[in-house]
């Protein structure tokens, strides 16, 4: 199986045992790897109605056939489980080098079952698998944990771990690797923590074989040239990182401000990627085999850390009505230390600020900290409290904005979908992105179909951000393509520059099986529908394909998108039809049969 290593490592934490299994070639061909194959394993092995913290819930870490090959930006892995935040199937994506190292060790997938009686970490060095005591790093931050474990294992090992947030079962906890890369969303870190699993350390010594090296060399050469020539991947992202989007999104009138009460931030320049580059950038960083190098290494005062992404900066600035970039960088760093999703953490703080603004949260609950919109002075401290579930507010906020707002009787103030916080694009000002948010299989999420590419950046063609005509078709295309990209092990950012045929050429060269662009989309369509089926069985019905009431009823008050509301209700039925589902949003038997899915 070219591109694959052919092995699944199944680990039972309860028994401290493991077994090796052969990868099912037929399933790999139908579901690719990564997100798709992980979803298939969940569908076959885990009851969708299970409590996410039940030991019988599984954590599946899956690479794709492109992971660990020299293909541009081919270093991703996916972590799949049942989300404690949304109740949906969770699938969180991370880059860096850990995923490639797992492939080098000889494994496509790790399936983690059961629960250890005490804190444990797993050491993997090729075919040597060990269960090791993690009591000494339990309670430690992710950086402390990484540094400690690297002294105990083989040189040049890669570390994946949780922080205090995952240990405390925060529903917005993520999993960290390579110090500042995160499988962040949907609370996956809490599921890992519920199993008393602190870390997985990996060291490998061999690389996956590809079927047609010469063909891959040509496809890589062409792909890298396109990435270099593209304005986003060749200039914007390498120069300023993803935070280059601040001024672009704000200029379109869709930068959520003050917990989505507004969509234009008059101090955007102060938090922009250009400002971060000018004031704080030390150097850019790249993940495995990546020619883009959008990562940042930042220095603020005496703190040298990995720099924040656009959504992270937004969450701790505009969404909180604040413009202190330095404090946002520090808040991002402490999210990494605690093992927290920056989007959900910042959004939960913004929700708390609106609750305070409306007089619902009282001064005597704050313990001397601030929850005023525009005041950055206490944001870092709130991050630490959330990470450690400290104090009454810290414990409540650690459960995410929906449950937090609901505890005060105002769930509508949570800007979330299926209980997961919406990222940094106001769907009232970007209609296709709003449809993608509402229909995302993991709740509020921008990377299940990044319509910003077409509606704002004009890639592959420019769409009117306020128009709804044609958006259901585009949303489906973006969602299906993204499902494939996540499953094959490449970075989504490559889609700014590459087209369907480019992915088909690379995938064909690696696997030795000829694929067309249309077949790539069909693979994505199959994965999307299987996720939908799992969610339906978990009780996530189509009534949850919606946006928060504010975004449907309150027009944007000022800025370039002034007066616009989401028109989701007009296009959602058209999207269902485009998907081949019935008018209520359920996949039809004919649709499933055409994709080879047995319900």
Annotate the secondary structure layout:
Elements: E1 7-12, E2 17-22, H1 25-31, H2 34-45, E3 59-63, E4 77-82, E5 89-94, H3 98-104, E6 109-113, E7 120-125, E8 128-133, H4 142-149, E9 158-161, H5 164-167, E10 175-177, E11 181-183, H6 188-194, E12 197-203, H7 213-229, H8 231-240, H9 245-251, H10 273-280, E13 281-285, E14 295-300, E15 303-306, H11 310-316, H12 325-338, H13 342-357, H14 379-388, H15 391-397, H16 401-407, E16 416-417, E17 420-421, H17 431-439, H18 452-455, H19 471-488, H20 500-511, H21 517-537, H22 549-553, H23 568-579, H24 589-595
Helix pairs in contact: 1-2, 2-19, 2-21, 7-8, 7-20, 11-12, 11-13, 12-14, 13-16, 14-15, 17-19, 17-23, 19-21, 19-23, 20-21
Please explain how this structure is put together.
The protein is an alpha+beta fold and 599 residues long. It folds into 3 domains: 197 residues, 4-Layer Sandwich (Aldehyde Ferredoxin Oxidoreductase,  A, domain 1); 168 residues, Aldehyde Ferredoxin Oxidoreductase Protein, subunit A, domain 2 (Orthogonal Bundle); 145 residues, Orthogonal Bundle (Aldehyde Ferredoxin Oxidoreductase Protein, subunit A, domain 3), CATH 1.10.599.10. Helices cover 39% and strands 14% of the residues. It has a 6-stranded mixed beta sheet with strand order 2-1-6-3-4-5, sandwiched between helices. Strands 8-7-12-9-10-11 form a 6-stranded mixed beta sheet. A 3-stranded antiparallel beta sheet has the order 13-14-15. Strand 16 and strand 17 form a beta hairpin. Helix 7 packs across helix 8. It is globular and about 60 Å long. It starts with 6 loop residues before the first strand and ends with a helix.
